[in-house]
């Protein structure tokens, strides 16, 4: 038996609420899938902001939409994609210029 697919839907850019996550870092949740403990969200980082150290129980997929993000030794620009594997830890995750990211990750 196939799992039912999520119902189609759209979210306009002006819809949703930006929530403070850390100094200079905000998130806007676009979609949640509690049955697989996953969500898709935007992350908006101000210049010179840092995301707190965090652990990944599931894969995290990150697409840079605008700006520049640094994840350890990797510097990602608009259009670049990054995956963090289960069991990995993100530290030194920052943005020198500010950025907008699209992320699919576990629900927290």
Structure description:
This protein is an all-beta fold and 108 residues long. 0% of the residues lie in helices and 55% in strands. It contains no helices and eleven strands. It has strands at residues 19-22, 25-33, 38-45, 49-51, 54-55, 60-71, 74-77, 81-84, 89-90, 93-95, 99-106. Strands 1, 2, 3, 4, 6, 7, 8, 10 and 11 form a nine-stranded antiparallel beta sheet that branches. β1 (19-22) and β2 form a beta hairpin. It is globular, with a radius of gyration of 14 Å. It starts with 18 loop residues before the first strand and ends with a strand.
In N-to-C order, the SSE pattern is EEEEEEEEEEE
Number of helices: 0
The counted number of beta strands is 11
Helical content class: under 10%
Q: Give me the Rg, rounded.
A: 14 Å
Offer a few descriptive terms:
two-stranded antiparallel ribbon; globular; mainly beta
Task: Write the topology of this structure.
Layout: E1 19-22, E2 25-33, E3 38-45, E4 49-51, E5 54-55, E6 60-71, E7 74-77, E8 81-84, E9 89-90, E10 93-95, E11 99-106
Antiparallel strand pairs: 1-2, 2-3, 3-11, 4-10, 5-9, 6-7, 6-8, 6-10, 6-11
In short:
It contains no helices and eleven strands. The chain is mostly beta strands.
